[in-house]
Design a protein that fits this description.
Layout: E1 2-6, E2 9-13, H1 20-55, H2 65-96, H3 103-106, H4 109-116, H5 125-153, H6 155-158, H7 173-204, H8 209-222, H9 227-247, H10 251-269
Helix pairs in contact: 1-2, 1-7, 2-7, 5-9, 5-10, 7-8, 7-9, 7-10, 8-9, 9-10
Length: 280
């Protein structure tokens, strides 16, 4: 509010207020589109690199298990780098203009990035507690949801196996180690940091928990394409958003994600539970 004195009269100028859709909706759409762009841009860059290597006779496009692990890691690194570029640029501009009205802007670069990704601290027993208490609830919810979806979409649709890019049998011990890293270690860390850390954190600056969690979870589900996999990842994301909200960190969600992927790895590659055809 601005108060001025002119011609012996006091005038009060009220600050202009941006409409809700400008102050809240546009930033939400913007961050969702930015992360989507990071995903597609990383895939395009990786495709160009692979084609260039192919024409240089340095590799075959039919990559082996270990090579696929490095390709997946490279994709995640590029997506991560593109995604955090924009907030780092905003931070640099704010510091240049001396706009340091938030604590995050004042943080050093490394701490700013870790805070942005929900990794501002090491895991603690609270994270472990939320993880342990939510695992059975997640699987119970997933079983009920899968049963209901099977009644709607049919058994053949809901029992489809996800194409992970690796042969399900005939893998050597070293190849299994590479697959384990590619499925159980890298995706939970990077996907939780980008989805429940970066994107969820940015959306929560503008909108309440439930709309933010739904947007993040829907985007995460769509990225997995198959109906059965998308349903499970949507439920997982909702649980992990809640854990992020309650603990202020993504560690509990990382543990949840690793557990789900570990079970998938055991079933699909180690023959756990008779090698059941699960949609994960």
């Amino acid at each position: 509010m601005k108060v001025t004195l002119a011609n012996d009269k006091i005038s009060v100028e009220k600050p202009s207020r941006k409409p809700w859709w400008h102050a809240k909706l546009l930033p939400v759409i913007g961050w969702v589109l930015w992360l989507t762009f990071a995903f597609f841009a990383a895939n395009v860059v990786m495709a160009i690199i692979l084609v260039a290597l192919r024409y240089a006779h340095l590799t075959d496009l039919r990559l082996g298990t270990v090579a696929m692990t490095f390709v997946d890691a490279g994709l995640y690194v590029m997506m991560f780098a593109i995604a955090i570029w924009l907030p780092l640029r905003q931070r640099k501009k704010a510091r240049k203009l001396a706009v340091t009205d938030t604590e995050a802007i004042k943080l050093p670069r490394t701490k700013f990035i870790l805070n942005l990704l929900g990794l501002s601290r090491w895991p603690n027993w609270r994270d472990v507690g939320y993880f342990a208490s939510n695992v059975p609830l997640f699987y119970l919810t997933d079983i009920v949801a899968m049963f209901a979806a099977t009644l709607i979409f049919g058994l053949s649709t809901m029992s489809q196996q996800q194409n992970l890019g690796f042969a399900m049998s005939g893998q050597s011990a070293w190849h299994l180690v590479a697959i384990f890293i590619a499925l159980v270690i890298i995706p939970p860390l990077v996907e939780e940091a980008l989805m429940r850390g970066f994107l969820f954190g940015k959306l929560r600056e503008k909108i309440p928990f439930w709309p933010a969690a739904l947007v993040v979870s829907l985007l995460f589900a769509v990225a997995h394409w198959q109906i059965n996999v998308s349903l499970m990842t949507f439920i997982l994301s909702m649980f992990n958003c809640r854990i992020r909200e309650k603990t202020g960190s993504i560690w509990g969600g990382v543990f949840m994600h690793m557990t789900v992927n570990l079970l998938s790895f055991g079933v699909l590659f180690l023959g756990w539970f008779g090698g059941a055809n699960v949609g994960v």
